Amino acid sequence: MSASEVESAQPVTEKSPSPVEETDPNKVFVGNLPYDTTEDQLKALTPELEVVSVELPTRTVTKKTDQTTVELQKGHGFIVYKSSEDAAKAIELIGGKTVGEREVYARAALPPSLAPKRERKPKKTAQRSAASSASGKMKKKSKAKAKTESKPSGSESDAKTDSKEASPADQSESTSAESSAPVKKARKPVLSKEEKQKKLSEGVPSKTTLFLGNLDKSVTSKDLKELFAEYEPVWIRVPRRELPKNLYLKLKARNVQIDNKGIAFVRFKSEEDQQKALKEFENKEYKNRKLNVTVAIDSAAEAAAQASSEGKENE
User: Fold this and answer.
1) What percent of the chain has pLDDT over 70?
2) Which domain holds residue 294?
């Protein structure tokens, strides 16, 4: 018998009587049983305890298709033990066990008047569904009518359009809005290896900045500020690994540290501080890595700017 036939069947008579009104302390209720559970399966739930009897209540139902009757289990059963102590143990033992593919549960057997009842949602009848669909259609029609009534006529719409076109204030507002739109920043061109080498060859050794190579990927500018604290660096840059913008924003939102490129630049107040730091940290180990510390190369433009600033200071 299929599940749909079971659901559509009408109960006629009860084969097994309901539990007696008096509570039996030796009796245990077992719920969520498959509809084909056997008495042996019920007894096997507590093999360590002595079972007096088992009961699998059934009901007689009539199929609507051919009006034949069939006996079906109710999906629960009762086990009677020798003592109330065994019944209490059985409730603990049965909880979480499975019969077939169902996880069953147990509790003390109660009279029908005290047993908890499942709340079933009322089925939607054809009359109710028709009424709801009709009311839905009426709502849609009323909304469409309201929109039509609120829509301005052609002459009114044209008049409004003409007034807008003739209004200089509106034109100025639209122009200002267009001008205030955000402009995307142009990306820096990516230099090839040859172009980078050429840039370095055209540059000049810096008088204040050191280049650090072979850094641990987790090093931050804060770490380097502490490392060179004795020489009071004025500027530190630790380039991070390049990532897609969306990935970078996700990692930043989650406070995930992004690895650096393994290099850094540290600028000092004077050439004297730069040279002292170079001597101290050249080939020094930091975070289990031997640092590659050299004088940084400034571009020709940077060198010229620095020279002009030094000249102004000396005047």
Assistant:
1) 59
2) 202-301
Name the strand (E) or helix (H) holding 211.
strand 204-213
* Element (DSSP H or E) covering residue 308: helix 300-314
Q: What is the CATH number of the domain that holds 229?
A: 3.30.70.330
Number of domains observed in the structure of the chain? 2
In a domain, 144, yes or no: no
Eight-class DSSP state of 14? E
| Structural domain includes residue 276 | yes
Within a domain: 189: no
Q: pLDDT tens, 255-286?
A: 888 889 899 999 999 999 999 999 999 888 99
pLDDT tens per residue, range 164-188: 444 454 444 444 444 455 555 566 6
Last residue of a domain, one of 108, 136, 169: 108
Q: Provide the whole-model pTM.
A: 0.37
**Mean pLDDT score, 221-227:** 92
Domain boundary among 108, 131, 166: 108
Query: Cβ-count burial of 79 within 10 angstroms (0-12 exposed, 13-18 middle, 19+ buried)?
Result: buried
| C-alpha span between 200 and 194 (Å, rounded) | 10
- CB count, 10 Å around CB of 62? 15
Cβ proximity of 75 and 35 under 8 Å: yes
> When comparing pLDDT for 221 and 158, which is higher?
221
Contact 62, 68 (CB under 8 A): yes
* Distance, CA of 296 to CA of 207 (rounded, Å): 8
Q: Is 91 helix (H, G, I), strand (E, B) or coil?
A: helix
CA distance 292 to 205: 16
Does 55 reside within a domain? yes
pLDDT exceeds 50 at position 75: yes
